[in-house]
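Example record for the data management plan.
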Amino acid sequence: MSLRKKKAQISVYLDPDVMTMLADYAARRNQSQSLVAEAAIASFLSPDGADRREAAFAKRLDQIDRRMARTERDVGIGIETLAVFIRFWLATTPALPEPAAQAARAKAGERYDAFVTALGRRLAKGPRLRQEIPEDSMGEGGSALPSQPLKTE
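Corresponding structural encoding:
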């Protein structure tokens, strides 16, 4: 039977705020303040404490990096989509004669409002275009879409 060493007693001066936090924490955990203080000191003095903090920071940084990569991908898809649409629209829409152009300008506000309404419905119910494009479809150079010129025959 091994003899258990008696614990040493120390006196510590704590700020009233820290003492209140210690008492509250111990009460919530239904533990003694001494046990909580001992665990906190042991954790503080533990040689692997810095390694655990570093690992937690690294994990958070990795999460942020993945989110940034997804954001960059989504912005790239948006830019490519807009560029393809503009290229297609310019290639397929002939210039209108002046009387027809005036009528088209008059109708433009109504059509724009319909577009915004349709976009709002699409964003509200999903799925988003970016969710329809697989992660591994990003080609060389970061483009999600082919860089070939659009055929407008």
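Summary line stored alongside the record: The mean pLDDT is 82.
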